[in-house]
Design brief:
Chain lengths: 436, 264
């Protein structure tokens, strides 16, 4: 029948129990251990006792113990009731690839480098050494040479919050994008797919247009944008479910498109009615970190932390979903619940990110796909690496946004697309050429 | 009497407005191989999906005495493994990773594989002679190897009931026989119960202990191949013109062209 059924080659091994040498076929069909029968429970016990295969003598001892326990005469028949082949106790040599060490390090170095560059570059340059010293001097009980208080203020009150916020938002958008692509099995899915962007845009516009005079729109805006984003996705989800087909992800995407179109129309209407708000709405929509302060960081970090943690924990489930709804279901996964959970986590995190940064496009698509092309398509690699690479990418993009036309600023969304698109094209070309 | 592996009572499935399966009742003993046969659209696939709890149904389905309707997805997945007709096989996944996904019903929702899971997957890989392919990607496998990988994934699930939907439809003649022999060996060694929807009636008759013939959602005949496979029935339900041969206790169904121009 099968060619591989020939007598397998034996390898010398040392019994993990008595230390005697013996020949083992590594669990291949035809190994001597197939003739020894033990109960499933015994096999499970053996796996906890020994790391590797046992010698014939030791294994036979366990088989005899089983037969005594069952009160049956010893037999060599391999197909008795409740019996199973002893089948060795091998090392589990197979495993799922996670994040390859090299790529994990690369992503860390990229993020760390981006952070250092971003903290150092500006109208007043601050070297990496000075940054490290200044950071240490802010720790209690450490007394080092201080930066000038002026430079210190620039570093910690102006640049640091901006850089940290860009890292948080970039990581969040990229990880949410990777999760959306997995849960909808759609390479074009991005975190804005289900109406986050349109909802946040409407919320922000309403806040800018209707903020009561005297109040500071700057405080209302993030809240309103956050609420709008959540509302958008909630409407899309409820609409999708009322059509009766949360089972098929296509319907949900269509519901998202519908809700987004409606909310964009409402936003445009509000904007037209309050023409004086045009400029501030427009600049918010383009996204940026120009007004970032520590308050923003404190505001969004809890949401982003929880959302990121939930998505990271789902990385194996996302691989299961890649088999399709039907097969994931037959493997015991409750598709609807998983989809809802991931959508909620990604939405809350994205909404928080958007509420302080505006709409920054492209990060959620380009970062996960670059990782798929360079590293692996398994979500065990894509999800965690997206977080790191997305953070580094947006930090770098923000550096460029505030330096090229200094002292003027480019919208960071322009930079992500302007640099991201050609970079992505290069990655696409080279990896496809190598594969093809 | 021991509990049947699968007990189906008045199973009905409605998809949209069409009644795909109507009041199907059957019982499958532990360790038995039952072949589901019937023309296209007879409800074979839907029946299998109902047994795996993937489609809502009326009636009762008991797996080892436990009702599918009141079990969680996870509990069902530990009892039945389903090999669909066209399984999704992400081309970049390695065989090892793919087989490991079969352990999902045994892994905590947000947990990762334990050593026991990796050992179970490794056993399934060894059992289907896939060791040399363990680190290869699914996209690089031939049709026969891919079919073995899919079976290995189902086997890693360690469910006592194996549902196969057209397990050999993509394979050549030799690979078909190999795959079915393999399923039969697994059934004997691991004491599996096999329910397989099959198009090739001769193969179905040779491997299954018993055949269930479905037509438009209804069970119209059941029993050993020699009884179920008659020229009259096949002509009735399949609208096919065939000759049924009985040789050495086996039944062969041969398609025959009516009004063969050469015979004139």
């Amino acid at each position: 029948m099968l060619e591989q059924r020939e007598r397998p080659s034996l390898r010398q091994k040392v019994c993990s129990r008595c230390g005697k040498e013996f020949g083992c076929a590594q669990g291949e069909p035809g190994c001597w251990c197939e003739s020894i029968v033990v109960r499933r429970e015994t096999l499970a016990e053996l796996r906890t006792l020994a790391d590797d295969c046992l010698c014939p003598t030791c294994l036979a001892g366990f088989a005899e113990r089983d037969q005594r326990a069952l009160g049956e005469p010893p037999s060599t028949n391999g197909h008795g009731t409740g019996s199973t082949w002893a089948k060795a106790v091998p090392h589990a040599s197979i495993r799922a690839r996670g994040v390859p060490l090299v790529w994990g390090l690369c992503a860390f170095v990229f993020l760390a480098g981006a952070l250092l560059v971003a903290l150092g570059i500006g109208p007043i340059a601050i070297g990496p050494g000075a940054i490290a010293e200044s950071a240490l001097s802010h720790l209690p009980w450490v007394h080092l040479h201080h930066l000038h208080s002026f430079e210190d203020a620039i570093l910690w009150q102006v640049r640091a919050p901006r850089v940290v916020l860009a890292a948080l938002v970039g990581g969040m958008l990229a990880i949410a994008g990777s999760a959306y692509q997995g849960v909808f099995r759609n390479p074009l899915a991005d975190p804005y797919l289900l109406g986050v962007a349109a909802g946040a845009g409407l919320g922000a516009t309403v806040a800018i247009a209707y903020a009561p005079p005297g109040s500071r729109a700057g405080e209302l805006l993030p809240l309103s944008a956050f609420a709008g984003a959540i509302l958008g996705v909630a409407c899309a989800y409820l609409l999708g479910r009322s059509v009766g087909a949360v089972r098929t992800s296509g319907t949900l995407i269509l519901a998202g498109v519908t809700v987004a179109a409606f909310m964009t129309a409402a936003q445009t209407f509000v904007q037209q009615q309050h023409a004086q708000t045009l400029l501030s709405v427009y600049s918010w929509l383009l996204g940026g970190f120009g007004s970032a302060d520590w308050h923003d960081v404190v505001l969004v970090s809890p949401y982003i932390a929880v959302s990121t943690a939930v998505l990271l924990l789902h990385r194996r489930i996302l691989d299961v979903l890649s088999l399709g709804d039907e097969e994931a279901g037959s493997l015991g996964v409750n598709i609807q619940r998983v989809r809802l959970l991931i959508v909620i986590a990604a939405t809350v995190g994205t909404a928080a990110a958007v509420s302080v940064s505006g709409l920054i496009g492209f990060v959620g698509i380009i970062v996960p796909h670059t990782i798929r092309l360079l590293v692996s398509t398994s979500y065990r690699a894509v999800v965690p690496l997206s977080l790191l690479a997305g953070a580094g990418f947006l930090v770098m993009a923000d550096v460029i946004a505030r330096t090229v036309l200094s002292p003027a600023e480019l919208p960071v969304g322009v930079v992500t697309a302007f640099l991201g698109a050609p970079f992505f094209a290069i990655v696409l070309r080279t990896t496809r050429r190598m594969a093809g | 009497m021991s509990v049947a592996a699968v007990e189906v009572q008045d199973l009905s499935v409605t998809l949209g407005r069409s009644h795909v399966v109507r009041e199907l009742s059957a019982s499958v003993a532990r360790g038995e191989w039952v072949g589901l046969i019937g023309p296209n659209g007879a409800g074979k696939t839907t029946t299998l999906r109902a047994l795996a709890g993937l489609v809502s149904f009326a009636g009762h389905v008991l797996l080892d005495g436990c009702a599918v309707g009141s079990s969680t997805r996870r509990e069902i997945a530990r009892r039945v493994a389903l090999v669909p007709q066209n399984p999704q096989t992400p081309p970049e996944l390695t065989v090892a990773e793919y087989v490991l996904l079969g352990r999902t019903p045994h892994i905590g929702y947000l947990a990762t594989e334990t050593r026991a899971d990796r050992l179970a997957a490794e056993r399934a890989i060894a059992r289907l002679a896939l060791r040399p392919f363990a680190e290869r990607t699914l996209g690089s496998l031939s049709g026969g190897e891919l079919q073995r990988a899919v079976l290995a994934r189902a086997l890693a699930q360690e469910a006592p009931i194996l549902l196969l939907d057209e397990p050999t439809s993509a394979l050549d003649l030799g690979r078909q026989q190999q795959a079915l022999e393999l399923v039969d060996a697994l059934r004997r060694d691991d004491e599996l119960t096999v329910i397989a929807a099959m198009h090739d009636l001769s193969l179905a008759g040779q491997y299954a202990d018993r055949l269930l013939l479905l037509d438009r959602g209804q069970l119209v005949a059941q029993g050993p191949a020699s009884e179920v496979l008659s020229e009259e029935r096949i002509s009735n339900y399949y609208s096919a013109s065939v000759e049924v041969l009985h040789r050495n206790g086996n039944v062969f169904v041969l398609p025959r062209r009516e009004g063969d121009p050469c015979a004139r």
